[in-house]
Write a structure and sequence with these properties.
Two copies of one chain form a homodimer. By secondary structure, chain A is an alpha/beta fold. The first copy, chain A, has two domains: 148 residues, Alpha-Beta Complex (Aspartate Aminotransferase, domain 1); 236 residues, 3-Layer(aba) Sandwich (Aspartate Aminotransferase, domain 2). In chain A, 38% of the residues lie in helices and 15% in strands. Chain A has 13 helices and twelve strands. In chain A, β5, α8 and β6 form a beta-alpha-beta unit. In chain A, α5 crosses α6 and α5 packs across α9. Chain A is globular. Chains A and B meet through α1, α3, α5, α6 and α9 of A and α1, α3, α5, α6 and α9 of B.
Chain lengths: 396, 396
């Protein structure tokens, strides 16, 4: 009686194996700066909490499988405000961005089909790919070019007759890279030529510090072949709400994803109500203030990183991650060292090792992902500690 | 650019096509008794609402992928209280029972493998099976035998070399049937002989009106090969909370499902906290009062059904459904007729047609599922209206 082969292949969380070491370090009295996960410290909006605390129903009933109609109306207004021309009927509310990713993948690919992704990429795409028997074909992007897309030929070289879609994520997790409009237009041309869907993860839409965010739906040629996956987790610092959505104007894909939504009944009811309250009460200062806060954190983080001899990294334009190449040849070992054999003034840092974000074995061994989710001064302190750790590690 | 073949195959909700007719009927001023979905009218416990209304955090953060540790401790106590000997470390909290079903299926079966189910069965199993490319092989149960399991030979005849598990649901949706201990022991023997997992949907555990509920884990021989899927949706009338769990003592299956859990990050945070509050404050009268209420509804529903000439149905011992065979040869047509061409004193009823619960084409054409989720007097009135409708329909 064996479990399934795919179940065996589902990758563990890349940071999970470090967790016991972090717990141990804390037990020894060491303060651990958590730069390893994208869990913002920003308060969830008061409008969200007010809605939760005054949720009026007596029976917590199933909601609509597509998502609560009124919430979808507010969502559509939010997208319209971002130059994304969609209606409430083109939105399916999902249980987090995670479910949106799964629905989109299932809508376009059968078992054995493949989807092009740019590595390094958000690890959890891989979990869903394995569960649904879809192959993710990685196209490498590099620290030397700020993790921007490689030349067209390199992308097309990976496309084969089982390729069904190209998956992009901008602003990017784990690299922070924001794709230029021209890059997404290039993706569109490739997709058109090879008759592919394009799936875009845009959960960090607002987190752009230079230039402007280009959405999939800003590119007219992508409107019929595009699927956007989204989430309120980062936008409203509501990771535990598990509210996302998937958007498409492709009627067939929409209907299929709606049927998937019916199979799982509905996304959480209370949090849709609360997310709607946030959208209804959103004022103009909300995002600028948060973005300013993250920009300060990014600048401080980048500035301190640049002081470490041998570090390679372009200043990323978005999200709240920096992927940096360190002068160490095995970041897995280094990340463990940080927690088991190092401290400075009773403090250390926890980072996400690069290999977890690559599908190609052997890549990312000198890279780490840093989530700048702590206040500026803490980020500076954390990166200074990281600098000392690199120094120590190199003289081991 | 086509969507995937499996996406095309995902079945729509069996009652969905009736929804527009129900909306239309209401627009015409007709009152519709909703016997078509298992949405209880019972209030969600006050302890749940108190916890939601006073949820203390400022940041709605990701929870543990396995579920909040303290909630799992209370869950383990709840299971112990039901004679199910498990620890918090053998539980993964899921986003509803739906996700628990998906995790369990994925843990045991690869693409092309199959799982034995007893039809009629809860339609949504099928949605997940299609998404994950698992075949559900139906073994028929019949109204004439109260939808109890057929002889061993009929079950074994369906098992082949790609069969990985037997899936049972007791108390059953849609039939209300409660499997006898001996039936589950039979399943255990078959599973042992053919080296299969056994997955049990026990979300209606408390809803038993005659005899006692037998859990998978009450059968010692099933402990190593058993996976329980569960949910608070019906138990605490919290369908919109999306909190379930999956339980197994099989270490390999557990680890695989935990990695699936990591891929989707976490189940909703607030509702776990609220569900824990319910468990902490549960008093001894809670279930007996609810069960008594449902028993009255069931008895009233059954009594009124039996007055309809030609109706065939055994009094079901559990859940809150009755599957009844009507003297009509096309219940899809009848269910539509109820909403479009019939009313009595300005009222009509909405039911779930039988074929939606069968995988075998042609079965269930005379059966309907009735959810007795309304108060006794309303149920009586609804079934009386149904009786008139049957009479009318037969004389069309």
């Amino acid at each position: 009686m064996n479990i399934s082969k795919r179940a065996l292949r589902i990758p563990p969380s890349p940071i999970r194996k470090l967790v016991p070491y972090a717990i141990d370090a804390k037990k020894r009295g060491i303060e651990v700066y958590h730069l390893n996960i994208g869990q913002p410290d920003i308060a969830t909006p008061q409008s969200f909490w007010n809605a939760v605390h005054s949720y009026p129903a007596k029976v917590l009933a199933y909601g609509n499988s597509q998502g609560i109609a009124e919430y979808r109306e507010w969502l559509a207004k939010y997208y319209q405000g971002n130059g994304i021309d969609i209606t409430p009927d083109e939105i399916i509310v999902t249980t987090g961005g995670s479910e949106a990713v799964m629905f989109a993948m299932l809508a376009v690919a059968d078992s054995g089909d493949n989807i092009i992704v740019f590595e390094p990429f958000y690890t959890n795409y891989n979990g869903y790919a394995v569960m649904t028997d879809i192959e993710l074909i990685p196209v490498q992007t590099k620290p030397e070019t700020g993790y921007h897309l490689p030349p067209v030929e390199e992308i097309e070289a990976k496309i084969n007759d089982r390729t069904r879609a190209i998956f992009i994520c901008s602003p990017n997790n784990p690299t922070g890279t924001v794709l230029a409009r021209e890059e997404i237009e290039t993706v569109s041309r490739i997709a058109e030529k090879h008759n592919l869907f394009v799936i875009a993860d845009e959960v960090y839409r607002e987190f752009v510090y230079e230039g402007k965010h280009t959405s999939l739906f800003h590119i007219p040629s992508l409107i019929e072949r595009g699927i956007i996956v989204d989430s309120i987790s980062k936008r409203f610092s509501a990771c535990g709400a598990r509210i996302g959505c998937v958007i498409t104007k492709n009627k067939e894909a929409f209907d299929a994803m709606l049927r998937m939504g019916q199979a799982r009944l509905c996304p959480p009811t209370i949090e849709q109500y609360a997310a709607q309250a946030v959208l209804m009460q959103l004022d103009e200062k909300f995002f600028p203030e948060i973005i300013e806060e993250y920009r300060r954190r990014r600048d401080a983080t980048y500035e301190e990183l640049m002081k470490i001899p041998g570090v390679l990294c372009e200043k990323p334009a978005g999200a709240f991650y920096i992927m940096a190449k360190l002068p160490v040849d095995d970041v897995e070992k280094f990340a463990k060292f940080l927690l088991t054999d190092f401290q400075h003034d009773g403090k250390t840092v926890m980072v996400a090792p690069g290999p977890g974000f690559y599908a190609t074995k052997g890549l990312g061994k000198s890279e780490i992902r840093i989530a700048y989710v702590l206040e500026e001064e803490k980020m500076r302190d954390a990166i200074k500690i990281l600098a000392k750790a690199v120094d120590n590690f190199l003289t081991l």
